[in-house]
Known about the structure:
Blueprint: H1 9-15, E1 16-18, E2 24-26, H2 30-38, H3 68-81, H4 102-108, H5 125-142, E3 146-148, H6 154-171, E4 179-183, H7 188-196, E5 200-204, H8 214-220, E6 225-230, H9 243-252, E7 256-260, H10 273-276, E8 280-282, H11 285-288, E9 303-305, E10 317-320, E11 332-335, H12 351-386, E12 400-403, H13 409-417, E13 425-426, E14 435-438, H14 446-460, H15 464-468, H16 481-486, H17 492-498
Parallel strand pairs: 4-5, 4-6, 6-7, 7-8
Antiparallel strand pairs: 1-2, 3-9, 8-9, 10-11, 12-14, 13-14
Amino acid sequence: MSDERPDDPQVRYDQARYVENGEYEPLLSEKDLTRVEIGGGDEDAADGESPLPDDLTRDSLELPDLSEPELARHYTRLSQMIYGIDSGPYPLGSCTMKYNPKFTEDVAALPSAAVHPDRSAESIQGTLELLYRLQDYLGRIGGMDAVTLQPPAGAAGEFVGIRVAAAYHEHNGEGHRDEVIVPESAHGTNFATAALGGYDVVSLPSDDEGRVDLEALEAALSENTAALMLTNPNTLGLFERDITEIAELVHDAGGLLYYDGANLNALLGRARPGDMGFDVMHYNVHKTFATPHGGGGPGAGPVGVVDDLAPFLPAPRVRQRDAESTGGEPRYELFEPDHTIGKVHGFHGNWLVLLKTFAYIARLGDEGLADASASAVLNANYLAEQIEYDVPYGPFHHEFVASAGEQDAADVAKRMLDYGVHPPTTKWPEIVPEALMTEPTEVESKDTLDRLAAAFNAVADEDDATLADAPERTTARRIDQTSAARSPRLSWQQLEDDE
């Protein structure tokens, strides 16, 4: 520590940290400063040598030589070539590609929302209050007693839920439970989550109506069962009518009932997983509460649990102090649950995504959320009635799975692009042959649904040759999807070389 104050104000700001009583502590040593000046990262940098391997270095940097108008027009053309939720309907079943209201983006862009996550709890009381209220909102919506906001995505929420379940069983001396039951029509992430959590996956067949086969479930349950992962309504859009009996069977076997929140759109304001007997659930806020979805993130997948599992949630969580005992101290504080599984994401989760979730819920309120689920169910049933393709299972709720019959579902999807709409999810769930899994969401108008139906029906009447050659009117024609996934062209230089 030095008693001398650096002479140059900029040097003082960049290189020293005020400690106390006029004393400053250097932030950078002379060796560090040498690295900064020459742009290097280790001792070799002082000699002008790169610390990177030779095959990752280059002698010169070639950049595109473009004027501002050329650059602006290039990106404008790209935006016009891409179909997005602002372009039209996006009826991907299960994925729930809702329209993202712009007011939530405005809220997230407020200067007051730009709060560094590493500030002390005393200095971010407003942020903590919002997070506390969001925990409460989500808990009441799902019928859960406690909520963590840390998981950064739905799949991450699944993993947290399964790890919480594992910690609960271990704490109760039942670490031998090493099996998780997953219905065959479940999301692929359910199988992956259970396996990643260290469990053996037991696949559960559906009955003739597309729901959980109770006899098969009873046969699958044992003293080794840790949990049953279930979506309700399920992937076919069907409500599990025997849910209370399912919950009783799982609990009698000593297992936990896990709720995949992918289809919570159908239940908002009308039914709660906690009331059905579910012990733990994750919320896909990008699906249910209209925060941006797709493109790799950021996302958020909060997890709710019943009281017995609350001590195992990730740390930290937010709680409200007793108002009578604060004595002027901060009302909201961070705390670690007694048997926490630890931290699963930095700080409090993806803060701005959670802020958008809070804004969406707060604006809609109880009546608005209930109206959203009613409209989602109405839109799905109206669209299904208008299309010529067969819908083998019902009655359904917010989504349905049609069958392309003798047509290839992937060809149907590509041909629908020529009619100016985005196609549904295809080829899944496999319980429906050539599946067209469709979810129009609550935001689409009757006119939009009629346009979607017209596209479905036009493709249904076309021959195989036309479908095999589709799409014809899009910027990119039919591509080699395998090569595109395994050998992507990631730079403009590579694109020029290929051409």
